[in-house]
Specification:
Helices cover about 15% and strands about 40% of the residues. It is α+β, with helices and mostly antiparallel strands and about 110 residues long. Strand 4 and strand 5 form a beta hairpin.
Amino acid sequence: MTPAQAIAALDRQIVRHGQAVSLRKNGAAADGSADSTVRAFVRGYKPEELAGGVQQTDSQVVLSPSALTGTVFAAGAKRLDKVLIDGRLRNIEGANPVRINGVIVRHELWVRG
């Protein structure tokens, strides 16, 4: 699978099964005026994934690099940035870009709060 194919497949899945979330840079305006709203796939962690500080109430947010193009998050989100999910502002505890052949094909965020 090429990076372009992987991104296209993720984009299709997020359109079908994702939800709108808003990303906010750490220190940005609390009123949300600088937020970037994108579609993402949000899920809780499975019991077997609760290790290394991950708690049962934490979530994983999967973002496509396509959704971040043209936003202040084009290079990805970072620890302590925020994500608004279903009206609840949550902290990004970790951000993991996933690559194929050196190209970022998705961003996996570990969120809490």
